[in-house]
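Checklist before submission:
- one chain only
- standard amino acids only
- sequence pasted in full

Submission:
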Amino acid sequence: MTMRAALARILLQEDINFLLTNRIPRQLANRFIGWFSRIEQPLLARAAIGIWRLFAELDLSESATQRFSSLHACFTRKLKPGARPVEADPNVITSPCDAIVGACGAIHHAELIQAKGFPYTLEDLLIDPRLVELYLDGQYATLRLTASMYHRFHAPYDCTVEKVRYISGDTWNVNPIALARIEKLFCKNERAVIRTVLRPSGLVVTLVPVAAILVAGIRLHFADDCQASFNKGQEMGWFEHGSTIIVFAPNGVTLCDSVREGAAIRMGRPLMRLS
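Returned file contents:
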């Protein structure tokens, strides 16, 4: 196959992927998959997981169980104890989830990058003017969870959740193809803005889990405004399907050297470093 033919094939696959995931009735698809994935029938679950494995690299070797009563149980699986060691260095903020690093780095005043050529602003995403002011010229990291990854997310540091704000929205796919074609996609989708205060420094780090097509649920172990406390690495919630978490830190915090666009990262590994 020539280089031109290979490129044409890749572009065709991207177009098909985009059409299949973003040009369908998204709410209807979400409801259907939400219903189907929760059918508790082990044989059906086994067949669905087998089909899933034909299209994705689904690794269940670290799962706490190998038997699932439903597809949903597999999506939201827990891991074996010790499967995700958490970096203990008190100067390190860890990744809250398994992910592929998307756009990351310095926020240019209030502007950051969704994908190459597609900027968006803190105001569009966070809504809250106080948070916008806090993260001017700060740091961010976009963490994309693929469908086959571990879907639970954890505290990046010893922290107290001060406030959670739910923002309703659409459920566009958040894969790279869609991010390169839909402007301000994260700002259009359903999301939660989770403001955490690190202990004992008082530094404010905000996590923004963004929902996506197929189920689109974000589940938290705490209420909207409950002053919930978490230790570094403690589970905070989970996605019903693959999606994205955007992490924000104030000016003075830096990304760790290994954090760059396209790199894989696991929950508990170094993400940002305190000054």
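Reviewer check: The chain has eight helices and 16 strands.
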